[in-house]
Structures are given as structure tokens and as C-alpha cells.
């Protein structure tokens, strides 16, 4: 700012009043005898009197020997004149009084003349005896009659004027009181708030209006009380918790295009039970710590498809995008990448580690560390393809249990959650990506826990067995089942058999059965694959499947073979059967069968018998015979099942197939999650607003009104009220969030969480039990628009708060009702109210002002006469605002200055301050700022825009490395030193006055302060660090952008003032004071040494 006047401090209210009002009214006529005498003598010098000798003389010349005349000259002679001139006059008076040697005046003058006293001291001694000398002269009767007559006239005139002047003194008051009819502003009573709690067993209590609450004692012993200003009901309703949820955003520039996206979601608890230190509702600089924790969001899918008991389990989840979402996601990727050529790569960047997967197990939620997520674009549909593997040793997925998973479910659940450590946080696109359907696929291998049956009954698959019995004739069969697999829509099932002792000869079965008279080869053995459907066996294909696997080159037998059933979801899904009841013969479906269908002879058991009998006959006939190989009996050493299943889930009004359910895990969700239904669903069900305040109430049934009190402090941030939006309120009806209408907000004296006040909400109907979650809580939340996030700084949110106001008192020794009382003073009502358990005064009372003084009223009146409610100059604005708003303590006007950095023309900025109790910063609530703007705008030119703001406070940190003298106790001294540094940076904080605009500090002065301390031996390094706020633009930038500026000893004598004229420098909560060796001290200041917003780290 080039205007130097901007850096000149403005007077406060008291200074303006003192400046405008003289201590005593000016006398209209002079009544002082000596001044009147001197005036007459001066006038008489121009009047000549004729003498008898023919000459003329003036009256003073004629009276020059008169003692009274000389005495009055002595009285009116200034003592500040030239000493030589005063000495000459003393000598002249001494000579003129020689003819009156008996007068004490002459004797004192002669003594002073002989003692050679300094002229000025001699004059002072003579003036101090004026009354005594005059009385002697009057009693001596030596005064000339002409001079005596003039003396009598002057004394008489002085008496008359002395009686007349008081009438004129009261003229201004008369004019103000009787002509202008002005009256002093009345006193404003103090006010405060108390929280009233009732005993749990008590019924609802009504606290009537004007109920007295005891705040102290009057001088006569009676209670001094504050009185309730409205009727309040103390109900069973209890505020269990309040949490703020921040969707923290950041900006990125790609090809000169600014993209804004959410980079984390943080949640923290807000005070509800006691008066605590203030905290911001939404801390834009917050990180994950003990106060702020990450809030997860995403999808939870419960499905029998996640029943994966054993084996090597591969799971795919495909999410099919709606046409609009395809267009959105492609455009988002293009914008993010900056060019279409890099679009494929940007899909990888967007999806890489975007989500955090976990599945429900016996021990709780188990993370799935490795997964693949890719974007697949096909001719008809685009989808997100998610796949992962559960290895053999991965825990078995289990249904959810409330105690271990936070929810209950019938089926295992998969959580697809936003990854808090994602390289590119996915919330901004995931919350706008909608899907028409979900497809889950399983491919499981290595299952051995099978139900196996053949003609001989149930078999043990973990030991060797004959799958087709001992005979293994054509038509022999083996049945296998695995409940987990058949509870899913199967596309394929396969059994891998490891065979025992297959023919280990050249040619295999062809050689083995060469003498059987049948052409049997390795490929001759085939099975028919069937599945159970309504207790009937249905073939999967008209063609049979080879039983044994052959090598590709020599067509030799392999020890393992795979028989598959291509089901294509034709097999009915097994439902409603427990594991204990899963037995062949007791279910309609759920099993597969392979039937030995080729060759006709099977494995030759019957053929062998026939050939054996023939050989016996031939042998009896002594014919040549060929010894036969005994028929081969296939034996399975071990067997594994594998399957592939696929379920496609389309959301609609009809029931979803099977037991699959999809839920949203939302940052603002309650525990009353219900399955998603509809034509489409979003990947992440989250709001587009950036901040939420979530409330949980117990004992809420039967009530339709919720009355909250928010205790806020004025914000230090600067903003434009035109950019503020209203806060939206929602309640949960047990199924979904329902927005309240504007009419439902019966009262909001907080001005959308800008000031302390009461918020009263009226629900559409009384709260029913169906509205409550599993823990019996009723949920409510407030959605804050982006440009509102910086401003709320809160002490707490409370239920059952009663506003109180003091009663004014004129008793001299009693509380006046305008003075602040500390927090906790009020703890009781004057009369006991049954059912009340406690009363807590939240904060020191405030708002009280004393009756306006007479000078204050005259100050207001002079303002009206000065600019007639049409301020023009900066001083006019300051005086006028102080006149209109008695609660203000100081105003600084910045004409033609737009602090919002919008380059608006005709803006007059007024920085206002209000003295606060308890040493708080002199800030005004926003409703007062708005009120000042609105009222002042009525008195200015329509082309002038009034902008009223609080001062902006800029932190200053002292960073120094010092060596203390031996014997110095470090901790107490550093505490004392910090206090001294604070007093230097902001003296007004120490003495309780108001800040000074344009105040400057310097590194040199801080060094002098440090070196003056006897405990400090050496100051090694020193610098001052200023944390500069960014200039606000439309109230949207907030305090996200901070600039750190360090002043070193190279700029020791450079005056350091606040970065803008309306900024005030304040010390940080801590300074960076080091007591390490010079070698260990880091000269370069690093931002790691501090955290923004007054949380600084001391290193010693």
C-alpha cells in the first residue's frame, strides 16, 4: 500500500471522545481581575491626559508610582521571559516604590535586590505573596482616587461576570438536551448461557421465561440474578456425539488448466460435554493425527460368491459403467492427463492403488494387499475390472459378526474402500461414477474336501479309491459334490484326477487289452458328464469326455487327467441347505456325475470272465491259449475339484438373485445400512459438499424439535459475505438421508455457524423407533458449502442451553449488571427446580455496556453537526461508526481500499475492534459486521461499497540460538523470555489495550532485548519469521496459502510491519528458542520446524 495514511493508527473511542469534548467549557466573558486590569491599562495607553505644565501623559504613566499599579504588573509578568528583562523590571519597580518604604512589598523587593537572587526566582517569590501585598495596600489607603475608582469598577464587573458565565457553561448541554432532545444511550445488560442437565429418571422439565439464576450477592445480601429470556424444555434427548467430516481438497494444474479434487477425508470429534479450548470445525491444514482420523468410504458387497473355503481362489469383480459415466470418466481422464494421447496411461495412474480391499474372516477384516484394477473398454460396455487372488494359506472368508466387523451379514463381505494412501485420491471421480450392474466371477482350484459317491457308497477322497467300483463296467459312475461351489451360478466345474498304476507299457491300454479281442486304445475310455437337476441327472453335452489325458506327441497316458462339466449357469443354485444336510440323496441339486460310457465293455471285467472261461475250455481241449491280463481297475490316488462361477447383479426394484447385497460405506452413514436398490449405483456414495457436521442423539423417540447451541468465537479469517451459502440440514429416517426444508429451520441465530447462538430444527414428524440405528441413535448432519469451511471456530455444541440476561442495578455496592462474570459463576437457580442435576455456565458473560457518559453523548451530537450522518473523510467514517455502535472500541478506515483483492472500485474498508473479556482477540462476530455494513450503507453514496472486517492477525516467531549463563534455570527463564518477546511484538496483549495499526518491530530491537537479559551470556543467531496470510479472493481461498518470510540480522534495522495495513502482528504461541551449540544450530529455517495455525515445536 502506497498510502502512508493507511499505516497511521486511529484513535479509539475514548480518545475520540477526549479529543472532541473539552475538559471545561470556555468562559464567554473574562472574569479574572488581573487580566481585566492589564487589559484596561493596555487600552489606557492610547488615552492622553493634559498636565498643568502643558504636556500630556497616559493613565499608566500617571499611576506608575502607585503600589497597586506596580503589584498588578508583578502579577501579570510572565516568568518565562528573558531573565535580563525581568531583572531590569525588578530594578525599576524597586526604584518606583522607594517613596513607600513601609510597605512589605517594598521591603521584600529590597531584600531580593540586595541578596542578588536570580530574577525569575525573585519574580516567583513576589507573585506568591500577591494576596498579602494587596490586602496591605488596600488597608493603608495610599491608592490614588482615580486608580481606586477603577479598581472598584473592575472588582464589581468581575463579580457580575462570574455570576453570568455559568449560564453560558450550561448552554451546550441545554441545546443538546432540550433543543436536539438527545439522551445518553442506556446501559445494556450483560448476557450469558448455561447448560442445564436433568437426572435420568426425571421427566421432561420446563424452565419458564424469567427464571432467576444466582450469579452473586447484592450489598444488601439479596441474590444478584441473571434471568432466562425464553422458555426452554429440558428433555430426555441427549447429544451423544458431534463429529466434523472434512473432504479436504487440493488443486493441480495440468496444461494451464486448474483441477480441484479431494485428497483425503478426515473426521474429528467436537466437544459436547464441557467448556474446552476453541478449535476449528474444519481445519484445512489438518493431517491424520490423534485428533483427525481418516474416514473410509466405498462399497461393501455381501455374496455367496465370496464363500471361498479352500484352494487357490481367484476373484474378479467387474463394475459396468452407465453411458453417462463412461463419457464422464473418459473426459475426466482426458482433462487430468492433458492430452488424449496419454489417456491409457492416465487410467493406470487414476486406478493404481486407488482402493483398499478387505474381506471378512473369522478374525475380522483381512486386507487383500495385492489386486489389479483396470479400465476395460469394449464395443458395447465399459467396465472397471477388479481382480485378486486368495492363496492357499489365506484365511477363510466368513460372514460378518457385529463384534468383529461392526456389522452382521449372512454371507462373507468384500469391502472396496478408498485407499487413504492412494497416489491420486479417487474420491472426486469415484463419487460421480455410476454403474448399471456388477459381475462377480470365481475361479477356484485345488479343492479336496469333496463329497464323493459311487456304486459302493460314499468314498473318502483323501485316500485311494475306485471311482467306478471294482468292476468298472460301462454305466458305472462317480458322483462328486462341494457345497460351496454349487451355491453359486457355475459356468464350469472340473475334476483333476491323479491315477494310480496306469499301464506302464508301450502302447498303454492298447497293448494291455491286446488279447481281449477288442480294439481298446488309450482314447477308448470316455465318460458322460452330468449334473443333478431336480433330482434327475442331466447331461452337459451330447459328446463324451476322455477319461484319461494323453501326451500330445506319442499319445501316451499321463498320470493326471482333467474332466470338466460345462454348465453355463444351467445348473440350479443350491440354496437353503446347511453343511450338515448336504448329502447326496437329500438335495435336489448340488452334485455332478461322470458315467463310464465308452467302451462297451467298460474296463473288461465281464469280458475277461468270458475270455477266461473260453481259455479253460481250450485248455481242456489242449488247445493253445494266450494268457490274459487281468482287467484294469482305475484307481484315483487323489482328486481335486476346480470350478468357475459368475453372478451378474443388476439393481432394480425386484429382488437381487441369491443372497448378494450391495451396501454403500459412506463417511456420513449410520449403522442402519440397507442394500442399494435402483437402476444404477455410484461407486462411492459421498456428498459433493466439502464439510459436514454429524450429530448423534439418544433417547430421541417421540420428539420432533431439536434445539442446539453452538458456542463459536469470531474468526480471524477475512471473507466476502456475498460468497457465503446456506447450510443444508439432513436427518436419517432409518433408510436414507432426508433433507430438511428451509421452513424446518425454525431459528438460526448463529447465522449459519458464524456466531454463537441457537439453532432450532423442526422435523416433519416425530422421531420413530424406525429412525434409529442399531445402537438406538438418531442421526442428523449439517452440510457446509466450500466457502464456509474456514470460518467456524468453536468451543462446543450443547443441548438444553438457556440464554440468560442480567438485571441492571444502580446500587453502588451491588453488581451493575453490565460487568462480565467469569465462566462457571452461575451454578444454581434461585429456587430449586426438581429433577435438575447440574447447571454449568459455559463462558464469561459479555455484551454488557454501561450507560453512555455525558461526554459520549456530546461526542455523538458534535458528529451530527460535523457531517450530518453523511461521512466523507476517513475520520468521519470512524467517528460515525463509533457513534452508531456503542459496543465498538476502535475503528480504522481505509478509503479506496478493497481488502478482498477483487479490484472493486469505490470500496471503503472499515476495520473494527471490540474489546473482549479474558484476553481474547478484539474480534467482532460476523452478524455484527454484517449489521454495521447494512446500516452504514444507508448513509453513503450508492456508488460507495462498505466493507466491514475484523483485523487480520499475522503471526511472528522469534527464532534464536542463545547460550545461558551457568546456574540459570532454563525452563523458567525461557518461559519468562517468551513472555517478554510477546510483550515486545504486541504490547497491547500485555496491558489490555487495543492493537495499534502500523506498529513495527525489528531484529535489532529484539537483539537488544535479549542482550539486556543478565541470564543470557551470548546471542549466537537471531531472526524473525513472519507467517503471512494470503489475500482473500471472494472468500474462497481461505487460509490455505501461507507465505513464510524470515528476517535475519542482515536486515537488522529494517522496520518489520504487518504485510497489509489492516493486519496486526501477534506473537505465535511458541517461539523457536534453541540452546544448542552454534555448530548444531541450523541457520536455514525449515518449515518442518512449525505447523501452521499456532502449533509450533520447540527444539532445545
Computed structural class: alpha+beta
Number of strands: 52
Mean pLDDT: 85
Q: What's the structural domain tally?
A: 7
Low-confidence blocks of residues: 1031-1040, 1091-1100
- Strand percent estimate: 25-35%
Q: Mind describing the biggest β-sheet?
A: 8 strands, antiparallel
Radius of gyration (Å): 50 Å
Portion of residues within helices: 10-25%
Q: Assign an overall shape.
A: elongated
Task: Furnish the topology, listing elements before pairings.
Elements: H1 13-20, H2 33-44, E1 48-50, E2 56-58, H3 59-62, H4 67-76, H5 83-96, H6 104-115, H7 119-128, H8 130-140, H9 145-169, H10 171-179, E3 191-198, E4 205-207, E5 212-217, E6 223-228, E7 232-234, E8 238-254, E9 257-269, E10 279-280, E11 293-294, E12 298-302, E13 312-321, H11 323-337, H12 343-351, E14 355-361, E15 364-368, E16 371-377, E17 382-390, H13 402-405, E18 413-418, H14 427-430, E19 434-447, E20 451-454, E21 457-459, E22 477-481, H15 483-486, E23 490-499, H16 509-512, E24 526-533, E25 536-539, E26 545-546, E27 560-566, E28 592-598, H17 605-620, E29 636-650, E30 661-665, E31 681-682, E32 691-698, E33 705-713, E34 728-732, E35 737-739, E36 745-748, E37 757-762, E38 778-784, E39 793-799, E40 801-806, E41 828-829, E42 836-841, H18 854-867, H19 874-884, E43 890-895, E44 907-913, H20 926-937, E45 945-949, E46 952-964, H21 970-985, H22 987-991, H23 1003-1011, E47 1016-1029, E48 1042-1048, E49 1063-1067, E50 1072-1074, E51 1090-1091, E52 1095-1096
Parallel strand pairs: 44-45, 46-49, 46-50
Antiparallel strand pairs: 1-2, 3-40, 3-42, 4-7, 5-6, 5-41, 6-40, 8-9, 8-32, 9-11, 10-39, 12-18, 12-30, 13-17, 13-19, 14-15, 14-18, 16-17, 19-29, 19-31, 20-21, 20-22, 22-28, 23-27, 23-29, 24-25, 24-26, 24-28, 32-38, 33-37, 33-39, 34-35, 34-38, 36-37, 43-44, 46-47, 47-48, 51-52
Helix pairs in contact: 1-18, 2-4, 4-8, 5-6, 5-7, 11-12, 18-19
Amino acid at each position: 500500500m502506497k498510502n502512508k495514511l493507511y499505516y497511521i493508527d486511529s484513535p479509539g473511542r475514548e480518545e475520540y471522545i477526549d479529543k472532541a469534548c473539552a475538559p471545561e467549557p470556555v468562559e464567554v466573558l473574562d472574569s479574572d481581575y488581573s487580566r481585566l486590569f492589564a487589559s484596561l491599562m493596555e487600552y489606557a495607553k492610547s488615552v492622553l491626559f493634559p498636565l498643568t505644565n502643558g504636556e500630556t501623559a497616559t493613565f499608566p504613566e500617571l499611576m506608575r508610582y502607585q503600589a497597586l499599579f506596580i503589584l498588578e504588573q508583578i502579577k501579570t509578568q510572565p516568568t518565562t521571559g528573558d531573565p535580563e528583562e525581568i531583572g531590569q523590571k525588578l530594578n525599576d519597580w524597586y526604584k518606583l516604590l522607594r517613596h513607600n518604604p513601609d510597605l512589605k512589598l517594598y521591603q521584600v523587593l529590597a531584600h531580593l535586590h540586595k541578596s542578588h537572587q536570580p530574577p525569575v526566582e525573585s519574580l516567583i517569590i513576589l507573585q506568591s505573596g500577591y494576596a498579602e501585598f494587596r490586602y496591605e495596600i488596600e488597608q493603608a489607603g495610599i491608592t490614588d482616587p482615580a486608580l481606586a475608582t477603577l479598581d472598584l469598577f473592575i472588582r464589581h464587573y468581575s463579580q457580575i461576570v462570574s455570576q453570568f458565565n455559568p449560564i453560558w457553561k450550561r448552554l451546550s448541554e441545554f441545546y443538546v438536551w432540550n433543543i436536539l432532545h438527545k439522551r445518553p444511550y442506556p446501559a445494556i445488560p450483560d448476557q450469558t448461557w448455561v447448560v442445564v442437565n436433568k437426572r435420568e429418571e426425571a421427566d421432561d422439565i420446563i424452565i419458564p421465561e424469567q427464571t432467576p439464576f444466582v450469579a452473586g450477592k447484592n450489598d444488601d445480601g439479596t441474590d444478584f440474578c441473571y434471568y432466562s429470556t425464553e422458555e426452554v424444555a429440558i428433555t430426555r434427548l441427549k447429544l451423544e456425539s458431534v463429529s466434523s467430516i472434512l473432504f479436504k481438497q487440493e488443486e493441480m494444474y495440468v496444461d494451464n488448466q486448474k483441477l480441484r479434487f479431494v485428497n483425503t477425508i478426515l473426521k474429528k470429534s467436537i466437544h459436547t460435554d464441557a467448556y474446552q479450548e476453541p478449535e476449528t470445525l474444519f481445519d484445512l491444514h489438518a493431517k491424520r493425527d490423534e485428533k483427525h482420523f481418516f474416514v473410509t468410504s466405498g462399497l461393501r458387497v455381501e455374496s455367496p460368491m465370496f464363500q471361498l473355503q479352500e484352494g487357490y481362489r481367484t476373484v474378479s469383480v467387474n463394475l459396468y459403467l452407465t453411458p453417462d459415466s463412461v463419457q464422464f470418466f473418459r473426459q475426466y481422464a482426458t482433462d487430468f492427463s492433458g492430452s488424449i494421447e496419454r489417456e491409457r496411461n492416465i487410467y493406470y495412474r487414476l486406478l493404481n492403488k486407488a482402493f483398499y480391499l478387505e474381506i471378512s474372516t473369522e478374525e475380522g477384516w483381512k486386507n487383500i494387499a495385492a489386486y489389479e484394477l483396470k479400465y476395460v473398454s469394449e464395443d458395447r460396455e465399459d467396465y472397471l475390472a477388479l481382480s485378486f487372488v486368495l492363496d492357499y494359506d489365506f484365511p477363510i472368508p466368513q460372514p460378518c459378526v457385529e463384534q468383529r466387523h461392526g456389522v452382521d451379514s449372512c454371507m462373507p463381505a468384500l469391502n472396496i474402500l478408498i485407499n487413504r494412501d492412494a497416489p491420486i485420491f479417487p474420491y472426486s471421480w469415484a463419487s460421480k461414477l455410476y454403474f448399471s450392474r456388477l459381475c462377480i466371477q470365481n475361479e477356484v482350484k485345488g479343492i479336496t474336501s469333496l463329497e464323493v459317491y459311487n456304486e459302493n457308497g460314499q468314498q473318502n477322497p483323501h485316500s485311494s479309491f475306485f471311482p467306478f467300483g471294482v468292476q468298472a463296467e460301462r454305466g458305472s459312475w462317480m458322483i462328486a459334490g462341494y457345497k460351496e461351489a454349487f451355491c453359486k451360478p457355475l459356468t464350469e466345474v472340473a475334476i483333476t484326477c491323479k491315477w494310480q498304476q496306469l499301464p506302464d507299457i508301450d502302447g498303454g491300454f492298447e497293448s494291455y487289452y491286446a488279447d481281449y479281442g477288442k480294439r481298446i486304445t488309450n482314447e477308448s475310455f470316455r465318460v458322460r458328464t452330468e449334473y443333478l437337476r431336480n433330482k434327475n441327472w442331466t447331461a452337459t453335452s451330447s459328446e463324451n469326455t476322455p477319461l484319461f489325458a494323453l501326451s500330445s506327441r506319442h499319445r501316451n497316458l499321463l498320470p493326471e487327467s482333467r474332466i470338466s462339466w460345462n454348465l453355463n449357469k444351467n445348473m440350479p443354485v443350491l440354496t437353503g441347505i446347511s453343511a450338515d444336510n448336504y448329502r447326496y440323496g437329500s438335495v435336489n441339486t448340488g452334485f455332478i456325475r461322470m458315467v463310464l460310457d465308452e467302451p462297451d465293455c467298460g474296463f473288461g471285467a465281464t469280458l475277461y470272465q468270458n475270455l477266461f472261461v473260453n481259455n479253460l475250455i481250450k485248455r481242456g481241449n489242449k488247445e493253445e491259449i494266450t494268457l490274459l491280463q487281468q482287467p484294469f481297475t482305475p484307481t484315483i490316488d487323489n482328486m481335486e475339484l476346480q470350478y468357475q462361477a459368475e453372478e451378474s447383479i443388476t439393481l432394480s426394484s425386484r429382488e437381487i438373485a441369491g443372497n448378494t447385497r450391495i451396501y454403500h460405506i459412506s463417511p456420513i452413514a449410520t449403522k442402519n445400512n440397507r442394500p442399494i436398490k435402483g437402476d444404477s449405483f455410484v461407486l462411492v456414495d459421498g456428498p459433493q459438499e466439502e464439510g459436514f457436521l454429524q450429530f448423534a442423539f439418544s433417547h430421541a423417540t417421540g420428539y420432533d424439535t431439536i434445539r442446539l447451541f453452538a458456542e463459536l468465537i469470531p474468526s480471524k479469517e477475512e471473507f466476502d459475505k456475498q460468497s457465503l451459502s446456506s447450510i443444508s440440514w439432513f436427518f436419517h429416517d432409518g433408510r436414507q438421508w432426508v433433507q430438511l426444508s428451509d421452513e424446518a429451520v425454525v431459528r438460526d441465530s448463529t447465522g449459519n455457524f458464524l456466531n454463537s447462538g441457537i439453532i432450532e430444527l423442526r422435523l416433519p414428524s416425530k422421531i420413530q423407533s424406525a429412525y434409529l440405528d442399531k445402537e438406538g441413535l438418531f442421526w442428523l448432519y449439517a452440510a457446509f458449502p466450500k466457502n464456509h469451511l474456514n470460518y467456524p471456530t468453536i468451543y462446543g455444541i450443547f443441548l438444553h442451553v438457556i440464554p440468560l440476561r442480567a438485571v441492571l442495578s444502580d446500587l453502588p455496592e451491588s453488581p451493575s449488571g453490565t460487568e462480565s462474570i467469569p465462566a462457571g459463576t452461575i451454578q444454581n437457580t434461585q429456587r430449586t427446580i426438581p429433577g435438575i442435576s447440574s447447571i454449568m455456565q459455559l463462558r464469561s458473560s459479555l455484551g454488557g455496556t454501561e450507560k453512555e457518559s455525558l461526554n459520549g453523548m456530546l461526542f455523538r451530537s458534535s458528529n451530527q453537526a460535523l457531517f450530518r450522518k453523511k461521512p466523507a473523510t476517513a475520520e468521519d467514517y470512524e467517528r460515525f461508526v463509533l457513534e452508531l455502535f456503542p459496543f465498538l472500541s476502535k475503528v480504522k478506515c481505509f478509503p479506496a481500499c478493497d481488502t478482498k483483492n477483487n479490484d472493486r472500485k469505490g470500496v471503503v474498508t472499515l476495520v473494527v475492534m471490540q474489546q473482549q473479556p479474558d484476553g481474547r482477540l478484539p474480534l467482532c462476530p460476523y452478524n455484527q459486521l454484517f449489521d454495521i455494513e447494512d446500516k452504514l450503507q444507508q448513509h453513503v453514496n450508492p456508488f460507495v461499497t462498505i466493507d466491514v472486517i475484523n483485523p487480520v492477525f499475522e503471526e511472528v516467531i522469534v527464532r534464536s540460538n542463545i547460550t545461558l549463563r551457568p546456574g540459570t534455570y532454563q525452563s523458567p527463564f525461557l518461559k519468562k523470555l517468551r513472555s517478554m518477546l510477546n510483550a515486545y511484538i504486541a504490547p497491547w496483549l500485555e496491558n489490555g489495550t487495543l492493537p495499534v495499526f502500523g506498529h513495527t518491530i525489528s531484529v535489532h530491537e529484539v537483539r537488544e532485548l535479549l542482550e539486556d537479559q543478565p541470564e543470557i551470556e551470548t546471542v549466537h543467531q537471531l531472526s524473525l519469521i513472519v507467517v503471512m496470510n494470503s489475500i482473500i479472493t471472494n472468500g474462497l481461498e481461505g487460509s490455505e496459502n501461507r507465505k513464510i518470510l524470515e528476517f535475519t540480522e542482515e536486515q537488522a534495522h529494517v522496520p518489520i510491519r504487518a504485510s497489509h495495513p489492516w493486519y496486526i502482528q501477534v506473537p505465535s504461541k511458541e517461539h523457536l528458542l534453541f540452546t544448542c551449540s552454534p555448530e548444531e544450530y541450523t541457520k536455514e529455517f525449515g518449515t518442518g520446524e512449525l505447523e501452521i495455525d499456532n502449533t509450533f515445536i520447540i527444539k532445545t
